[in-house]
């Protein structure tokens, strides 16, 4: 009887599908794909949609999902954790001081001493007179609002008219003074009316360019040539007038500083808050006081005349026309 010859092992380059099948491990299936067994006593039901108990962290079937159904060992633990978490949260407005729209103060009515802006008595703000009142005096008729000047409001019309009249008087005094000096000093030439025709303006500007003073480093296309004078009525100047050129990119405030220095006028604009002490630049052709932040190139042209006035106030309109 012949003996069975043993099968030689496969070479390195060959593959034995029989051996691979016997050796290969079976794939491990995820337990969540096939469900979980209920952990309740005597149940062990395989449930494909098990319920997790938040108190004891065990899984149960539909019938034993409640704490009372599976006799939870930590009954109420989940509810207690939720309650503690809610208590740990800060309450609404914690750490903040609730304030009224009106600060705590007395009622603005002179005859009332009620304290407003408190937690018990809320104040009412009047937009007309910009004051705070109690509930009793909150209406306009109750606190005589129409006869009160609003707090922080602009000056009344009478104050504006007074400043305007002062500026107009200063300008008239400047004109009258120049005329009187011209009559007394026959050889003194005063500024003449600006030429009206284009050719006359060109000739006047060319003559101005020959004698105007300024920064020689300034490019020619950037220069604006001006006649600059000082008002004799309110401004004391060692040099009453001059011819200068400035950059188009400068602002009027810088021109004022340079002109005051050239004419040796006292300039206290940065030292005094009073309007009667401040210098302003008046544009003769435009008939108005120029703002400090205006650009020279936008407000002035070569050949114009500007006058340094003191105490005229900002933006006085149309002095010449009036």
From TrEMBL:
SUPFAM superfamilies: AN1-like Zinc finger (SSF118310)
Molecular function GO labels: zinc ion binding
GO cellular component terms attached to this protein's record: cytoplasm
Record keywords: Metal-binding, Zinc, Zinc-finger
Ranges where the AN1-type domain occurs: 32-80, 101-153
Pfam families: UBL_ZFAND1, zf-AN1
Database matches in InterPro entries: AN1-like_Znf (IPR035896), UBL_ZFAND1-like (IPR057358), Znf_AN1 (IPR000058)
Superkingdom, taxonomy of origin: Eukaryota
Listed Gene3D superfamilies: AN1-like Zinc finger (4.10.1110.10)
Protein name as annotated: AN1-type domain-containing protein
Organism for this UniProt entry: Coniella lustricola
